[in-house]
TrEMBL record:
<feature type="active site">
    <location>
        <position position="238"/>
    </location>
</feature>
<keyword id="KW-0732">Signal</keyword>
<dbReference type="Pfam" id="PF00295">
    <property type="entry name" value="Glyco_hydro_28"/>
</dbReference>
<protein>
    <recommendedName>
        <fullName>Polygalacturonase</fullName>
    </recommendedName>
</protein>
<keyword id="KW-0134">Cell wall</keyword>
<keyword id="KW-0961">Cell wall biogenesis/degradation</keyword>
<dbReference type="InterPro" id="IPR012334">
    <property type="entry name" value="Pectin_lyas_fold"/>
</dbReference>
<dbReference type="InterPro" id="IPR006626">
    <property type="entry name" value="PbH1"/>
</dbReference>
<dbReference type="GO" id="GO:0004650">
    <property type="term" value="F:polygalacturonase activity"/>
</dbReference>
<keyword id="KW-0964">Secreted</keyword>
<dbReference type="InterPro" id="IPR000743">
    <property type="entry name" value="Glyco_hydro_28"/>
</dbReference>
<dbReference type="InterPro" id="IPR011050">
    <property type="entry name" value="Pectin_lyase_fold/virulence"/>
</dbReference>
<keyword id="KW-0378">Hydrolase</keyword>
<dbReference type="GO" id="GO:0005975">
    <property type="term" value="P:carbohydrate metabolic process"/>
</dbReference>
<feature type="signal peptide">
    <location>
        <begin position="1"/>
        <end position="22"/>
    </location>
</feature>
<keyword id="KW-0326">Glycosidase</keyword>
<dbReference type="GO" id="GO:0071555">
    <property type="term" value="P:cell wall organization"/>
</dbReference>
Amino acid sequence: MTSKCCFKIGFILGLVFVCTNAQEKVFNVLSYGAKADGRTDDSKALLNGWRDACQWNGNGTLLIPSGEYMVNGAIFSGPCNGSAKTFEIKGVIKAPTDPNIFCKLESWISFQYIHFLDIKGHGTFDGQGACAWGKHPCATPLPYTLGLYFINNLIVHDIHSNNSKGVHVNVYKCINAKFRHVQIAAPDNSPNTDGIHIGYSKNIHIADSNIGTGDDCIAIIDGSQNINITGITCGPGHGISIGSLGKVPTQEVVKDIQVKSCTFINTQNGVRIKTWASSIAGMATNITFDDITIINASNPIIIDQHYCPERNCSDSTQESCVQIKDVTFNNIRGSSNSKAAITLNCSASHPCKGIMLNDINLEYHAPDAPAISTCANANGKATGKELPPSCLK
């Protein structure tokens, strides 16, 4: 029917309502021949439904009702006609387990070149990753579950992503995106299963979500600017990380990052910034970690500018050329399961500048207690409570 329709887009500083006098229409994938039996490849039905929703000169919704949908891979592409488009998933979309299929994919499900997109519905993307973890079936990295590329004005909310083969959600060159009430889960031993991976994107807000994986809950890499993360429960996983930075040419600065009111439970790291030991020039600046609870993390607070996880990477005598500056750690409390609760291991050629530690209370319960902090090439100051005592000068 014809009505005045408002599409709500989440921004960091509020909400924008885009209103049009347009027709709303739902495109149900069952009408396009989807079987929803969990075995038949329903990719074509989803793609045909999206084609019509995208071409519809109004607010078009692609609806995936309850049921199980096997999808061997799908790219939902724009630009689209009309105004907002919605991808509403109420059922379970299952990824292929045959490496002859999934090894050919960079992203299993991807959306690209779309303005005003809403992904919602309380449904589940099931990556069926156990068929691939640790088995090296592909010559290339394992596919992302959900790739979001070149999208302006995006909301992703009330969805689940389980057992991705690789990264769960990859955000690349998106502007104005809001994630909320997102549930991401994979076992702690699943490799490279980052929850949300952000690169070359601006104005991204992630809020009120639970993320537990075998890698970073949230990873923020080159070119990420104005990223706000609030109300995240992370664990298991490697914590919330900025980096790895400095490995590839033509990287852009990382700046204006805020991580606030988050909880980390049994994670490898809490809040982390990492750059490659030998790197090209770069910068990460204006970063705040505030009001953080950490329970039993191995590295609650860590800056590591000698990151080198690969066997063939350069030795520790080479220094990072990424400048880290103006980083604040405020009101961070909880417990460490290692003696070094704070590690600031910065580059000798590009020392960290403007590091602020304020009201840090990290306990360590072990025979060799109390906890300590370690610093190398880190400049700044500490105020308020200092547990462990600060090593900053």
